[in-house]
Design a protein that fits this description.
The chain has 140 residues and is α+β, with helices and mostly antiparallel strands. It is 39% helix and 35% strand. A four-stranded antiparallel beta sheet has the order 1-2-3-6. The protein has a two-stranded antiparallel sheet with strand order 4-5. Helix 3 crosses helix 4.
Amino acid sequence: MRRRDLIAASALLPAALATPTAASEKSSQAGAVLNISGVGLPVIANGRIQNYVFVSLRLHLGGSATPESVRPKEAYLRDALVRAGHRTPFTVANDWTRLDAAALSASLMRSATAIVGRGAVTRVEIVAQAPRRRTGVRAG
């Protein structure tokens, strides 16, 4: 490859790298959203970790919050969710393959108010839950 071709290709690289990020954020009629995927949360029963469930979330943003302004805080939101999951598990009684979506959403809403600001996140939607183990665990 010639030097000129390498320079031209490197100019296109930032646009190609920005594509996955753009796919995880959407502007809808009600407002912007930010997708967070692959958050591993424990299923704790009888004081022991029985399983892990990986959740994908969609944060609906409100007010002046944009995906670009909330994305730098994503690591803090993940951390707050994992800490809450260990402190007060989101376990569903007699089912170690899924989590309580309402409790999980409420916990993240409380954390988001402190981390991102009041009104920045209007709703947390649980898009998917994928248990680490599907066999050998209780399923109600």
